[in-house]
Amino acid sequence: MDAIRGLMDFIDASPTAFHAVENICAALADAGWQRLEERETWQIAPGGRYYFTRNRSSVIAFRVPEAGFAHFQITASHSDSPCFKLKPGAARDAQGCAVLNVEPYGGMLMATWLDRPLSVAGRLVVSGKDGLETRLANVDRNLALIPNVPIHFNRDANKGVEWNPQVDLLPVVGAEGADILAAAAESAGAKKEDVAGSDLFLYNRDRATLWGNENEFLAAPRLDDLECAYAGLQALLEARPSKHIDMLCVFDNEEVGSGTKQGADSSLLAEALRRIALALGAAGQALEAAVAGSFMLSADNAHAVHPNHPEKYDEDNRVRMNGGVVVKFNAQQKYTSDGVSAAVFERLCERAGVPTQRFANRSDVPGGSTLGNIANSHASMNTVDIGLAQLSMHSAMECAGVKDVDAMIRAMRAFHEAEIDVRADGIIALD
Ligand code: CO
Questions:
Q1: Nearest to 36 by CA among 275, 227, 212, 225
Q2: How many angstroms does the Cα of residue 199 sit away from the middle of ligand 1?
Q3: Angle at 23 between CA 21 and CA 24, to 5 degrees
Q4: Any residues with CB less than 8 A from the CB of 20 and at least 6 apart, and which?
Q5: How far is the CA of 99 from the centre of ligand 1 (A)?
Q6: Whether 191 and 267 share a structural domain
Q7: Is 216 part of a structural domain of the chain?
């Protein structure tokens, strides 16, 4: 139960990607890992453990072996989740209330955000003595709510509603004149007049909770993809040191296409690999040879079969909650898994006693995409797409199996502790 409790605490403390990354950094620092800055020249010692952030919303951590430079074994996940972002001109009075002007971030199930307590969190840019600094903000109380239109004024409301985010989804945040920026500044220990910039988001105030006849399930906001980010962190912290370089990547902006300076579709991972190689004195083709021998787990949650709608899922490739780690396949290569990468991963899981299950979409459903194939376009290596089965993906409150996060931690730990030795193209030894 440690794993599920740890996950619930992590989600509750991580209303935005900035908070998730801060909490990952705090856990690494507590365990003695050393912070690096991209802005500085890196000094990396054999046996050392390091991490750095970009935009404070993506984080990479890595541990180098006691001797030499070797290939990389990487877990990747994402720190962001669908939500609403405050526009620059955010507050307006309307009909005796103050409303916030927000726009969707990512593709959420919009209806799930209505009629529930929400609040505002993110980061503020604050002016100080030496210029500007960023600070986390979280108005840690029930601050906002997006009210539904009563059924009396829309008798077709139960036949499907089309939501216009410019009109229908603006949250009420109090009586006229409610000053949300002042509340956010206060939560960051700053004065409103010192706030020079902001990236603020709405978040669901619900806490993670267990439910079901025997507490088989977990309901929580942001399970996609904080569940895999948390599992990657725990696995890295728990894994025995190895002969290769173990790495954790948690990227921001997966839900909006990854195309930012800190997203998977950026230089972030490739530059990290190159800088580590250079700092360890690897010369010539050593980096390219190491990347060719590297392996990545692209971990993002998967769709559990919906008991009321099994027809939405391919009948031979469905997965269920509490059924273990999901390996995802897609012929269009939205998922990176292929015969080789899936076989390596499933073999490692089998040896560790971790159950796995296989997922593919119906052929007449396009399905989603994730970050593995995007990261591979910048740093190409054997990669397998995995995840944990969940219901209600992209709802304000998602649902997963209570046993699965422990399965993912054990799978990722076994992955880090194994030596995946690519002897030649298509020939892989597992120690
Ligand atoms: Co995801």
A1: 275
A2: 21
A3: 65
A4: 10, 14, 79, 226, 229, 250
A5: 29
A6: no
A7: no
**Residue 302, H or E segment:** strand 302-303
Q: What is the 36 CA–ligand 1 centroid distance (Å)?
A: 27
The candidate with the shortest Cα–Cα distance to 360, out of 381, 391, 334, 383, is 334
Range of the domain at 58: 2-81+221-430
The structure tokens listed for 101 are 């002007």
- d(CA 263, ligand 1 centre) in Å: 13
pLDDT in tens, 253-307: 999 999 999 999 999 999 999 999 999 999 889 999 999 999 999 999 999 999 9
CA–centroid distance, 259 to ligand 1, in Å, is 15
CA of 79 to the centre of ligand 1 (A): 9
User: Per residue in 174-207, pLDDT tens?
Assistant: 999 999 999 999 999 999 999 999 999 999 999 9
Domain count of the chain? 2
Q: How far, in Å, from the CA of 121 to the mean position of ligand 1?
A: 20
Nearest of 204, 219, 148, 183 to residue 4 by alpha carbon: 219
**In 3-state terms, what secondary structure has residue 392?**
coil
* 141 inside domain: yes
The tens digit of pLDDT for each residue in 312-360 reads 999 999 999 999 999 999 999 999 999 999 999 999 999 999 999 999 9
Q: Which residues surround ligand 1, an ion (CB under 5 A)?
A: 224-225, 300
Domain ends where: 169, 204, 239? 204
Tell me how far the alpha carbon of residue 296 lies from the centroid of ligand 1, in angstroms: 16
Distance from the CA of 137 to the center of ligand 1, in angstroms? 24
254 Cα to the center of ligand 1, angstroms: 7
Q: Are residues 115 and 75 in the same domain?
A: no
Q: Is residue 363 part of a domain?
A: yes
Give the distance (Å) from ligand 1 centre to CA of residue 370.
6
For residue 374, the CA-to-ligand 1 centroid distance in Å is: 13
Contacts of 258 (CB under 8 A, 6+ apart): 251, 264, 265, 266, 371, 374
Q: Model confidence over 206-230: pLDDT tens digits?
A: 999 999 999 999 999 999 999 999 9
Three-class secondary structure of residue 144 per DSSP: strand
377 & 328 share domain: yes
Span from the CA of 181 to the centroid of ligand 1 (angstroms): 30
271 and 393 both lie in a single domain: yes
Q: Are residues 162 and 241 in the same domain?
A: no
Structural domain contains residue 239: yes
CA of 372 relative to ligand 1 center, distance in Å? 11
